[in-house]
Amino acid sequence: MCVCVCVCVCVCVCVCVCVCVTDSGIQLLEHEEVLFNHYEKVNIQEAAITKGNVALEMMEKEMRDLQLAINEEKRQIDLKKKEVPLKRKLEGELTMLQIETLEDLNQTVDYKELKGKDPSTVELVKKIEQLEVNLAERERQLLEKELLVDQVTRLSKPLGEQAENCQQDRLSLRKKLNDLRTHIINTNHRLMAVSAELSMKQAAALSQRQEIKEKELQVRGGLSHLQQEEWNQLPNGEYTTAEARPNAYIPQTDSLPLPKPYGSQAPFKPPQPGANMRHIRKPTVKPLEI
């Protein structure tokens, strides 16, 4: 009865250990699947961030090129603006010269003749017309430059806004990536805890299996002991460890050799010599004299 109870207890312990290990393995597989999904999301987010960074770098390069073009146009405009006062100064000097020329024509004054050739009125008029044409051309170029600067500024404004939006998206993606990394770290910690718990349960299961084997060996030893006790039991119910003796013989004279019991006059079986026999000397056999 005790042996049956021990075997049942061992079987129950084995079933409980197997159930615990199976549940822990299922939980570990679920955690690994969640971790794989998180890693896949992180890879997608990192690819999107890389793509956004490339687009942002291209936009920043375009903005730098446009800014360089704007600066060059502004420099040209400044140069043209610096030429305008010079043109006005030349116009003023030309007017003063014309007035002085008219006054000289109207009145005779003492003058000192200078060496060189004075341009004629026709040449002066041509020079004035040429200066006016150059001035108009410069003003037209200045207006074109200003229009080009306005157009470049208007075109670069959406790019600047788009770059700011990309920076905001980049910040939001970085925040999401940091959150995902934090979640992955926490999941790794939980997975390590589950792995440690599973290792402890596996160690406990191994110790319980060892204990079960020891119990089985004890049960087998008890069964063999019980069988030995049954073997040592005589038909009359007594227990003995003595060597079994024959209680029947087969007659050689009968045609049908059947065993016959000895009855109460069974042959004597001498016991094994004891330790005291070493103190007894064997008798010396004397020869017979006739």
TrEMBL record:
Keywords assigned by UniProt, alphabetized:
Coiled coil, Signal
Superkingdom is Eukaryota
Q: Which GO terms describe its cellular component?
A: cytoskeleton
- Coiled-coil annotation reads 56-83, 121-148
Q: Where is this region: Disordered?
A: 251-290
Q: Which residues form the signal peptide?
A: 1-18
* UniProt protein name: Coiled-coil domain containing 146
